[in-house]
Design a protein that fits this description.
Layout lengths: L1 H18 L5 H14 L6 H8 L3 H9 L3 H6 L3 H15 L3 H7 L2 E10 L8 E6 L4 E15 L2 E10 L9 H18 L9 E3 L6 H10 L3 E5 L5 E4 L2 E4 H7 L13 E8 L3 E10 L2 E9 L4 H9 L2 H13 L9 H26 L3 H10 L4 H4 L12
Parallel strand pairs: 1-5, 5-6
Antiparallel strand pairs: 1-3, 2-3, 3-4, 6-11, 7-8, 9-10, 10-11
């Protein structure tokens, strides 16, 4: 595994050199060292410095010299560059292979619990797990799922306070525009693939904005308090769920479903799908071009990928273990975790193992870090 890890490190070093030309070699090697150490169970500069007998001040000084602009770009360019390779590979295959991989863009946010109150972008957010507001950072993310591979395209910290405070839908449109601009320069049209959202993002303004950007298939999870007219009956979705009759013999569907046309002043006209999932009746709002019921359900099943990504982000990469000061430090922390995830993904594909299996093996082989450290000569203190 160490040879493949070195190969992966060289790959990311080339990516950083391609998309971040102004930054120095020392910063590149510091970032890569911290990312590699994540695979060995070392999740912040303090742990890395203690394990490898490196000067902590030099690590923190190197991270602090990275600008806010480049810190934000860490969460955008590297993931997009890897996603382009996966999408181009899928587009070169047959139509049946493309259908099986079902490329889907997904949007969702999550909360990262924090203990230190002096960190940037921290606010009180309600937590279902704790049933009370907790002090945390809110991260808005865009991912693309190609087959069973989930690649983050852009991550952005959301603040409730500050002079430049922006609501999430407006911030999301800006993020999508940045992602589309990056893909357009590489000759890949991301607009032709469906995009999915949680119910929190359901709004006509967002649907119209995405349609103007060129997206033709927009799927949003329905919320029980949405009011709409179905079959001349105006009521909340929770009421429609009790009245609807699901059919189990719909073509291509593995669960009972019901398809209806709906209308409301908020959303206009669209198609709403009722389906039974894990004993509950759920709803899916489909905007844009008409999709078969089985197509819409298959696309929505891909939305689970972004939730899977957040779980890896929190449990495998211990995102809360790294705490750097200032806005720049917050984005550097997030960017290092994104790079570590991409490195784990690349290793998982080449080794055909899960993230946990890779980290479990490398944690037991932490002594090999002394061999890998030779590839990061710029941050090793020179002998007198």
């Amino acid at each position: 595994m160490p040879p493949k890890l070195i190969k992966s490190t060289i790959f990311f070093q080339d990516l950083l050199a391609s998309y971040f030309q102004p930054i120095t070699q020392q910063i590149v090697e510091t970032l890569l060292l911290l990312c590699v150490c994540h695979l060995f169970g070392l999740y912040n500069p303090n742990q890395v410095a203690d394990a490898l007998k490196l000067p902590k001040a030099r690590l923190y000084r190197s991270l602090g010299s990275l600008s806010l602009y480049h810190s934000k770009c860490l969460n955008l360019r590297l993931g997009c560059a890897m996603a382009i390779d996966f999408i181009k590979d899928a587009e070169s295959k047959s139509a049946s292979t493309q259908s099986r991989r079902c490329i889907t863009v997904s949007v969702e946010d999550t909360n990262l619990p924090r203990d230190a109150e002096t960190l940037a972008y921290c606010s009180n957010y309600y937590s279902k797990e704790h049933n009370t507001p907790i002090w945390c950072q809110n991260v808005l993310g865009i991912t693309v799922k190609c087959g069973d591979r989930v690649i983050p395209l852009d991550m952005r910290l959301v603040s409730k306070h500050g002079r430049g405070n922006t609501d999430k839908p407006t911030l999301l449109i800006t993020m999508i525009q940045e992602v589309l601009a990056f893909f357009d320069t590489q000759g890949v049209d991301l607009r032709k693939y469906p995009i999915t959202f949680d119910s929190w993002y359901a709004s006509r303004n967002l649907v119209d904005a995405l349609s103007e950007l060129g997206f033709t298939s927009i799927l949003v999870h329905g919320k029980n308090n949405f009011v709409m007219t179905i079959a001349e009956t105006k009521a909340k979705l929770s009421v429609h769920k009790k009245r609807v009759e699901l059919s189990e013999d719909q073509w291509g569907c593995d669960k009972p479903v019901c398809r209806r046309k709906a209308e409301s002043p908020t959303f206009g006209e669209w198609v709403v799908l009722f389906f039974r999932d894990r004993g509950k009746i759920r709803t899916l709002l489909v905007f844009g071009k008409p999709l078969r019921t089985c197509e819409a359900l298959r696309i929505w099943s891909q939305h689970h990928g972004i939730e899977q990504f957040w779980r890896y982000f929190k449990s495998n990469l211990h995102v809360s273990a790294m705490s750097l000061e200032s806005r720049q430090g917050a984005y550097v922390s997030l960017g290092i975790k994104v790079m570590s995830y991409l490195m784990l993904l690349q290793m998982s594909i080449s080794e055909r193992r899960t993230f946990h299996q890779i980290q479990l093996q490398l944690t037991g082989e932490r002594y090999t870090l002394t061999e890998l450290i030779a590839h990061f000569h710029e941050i090793i203190p020179k002998e007198p």
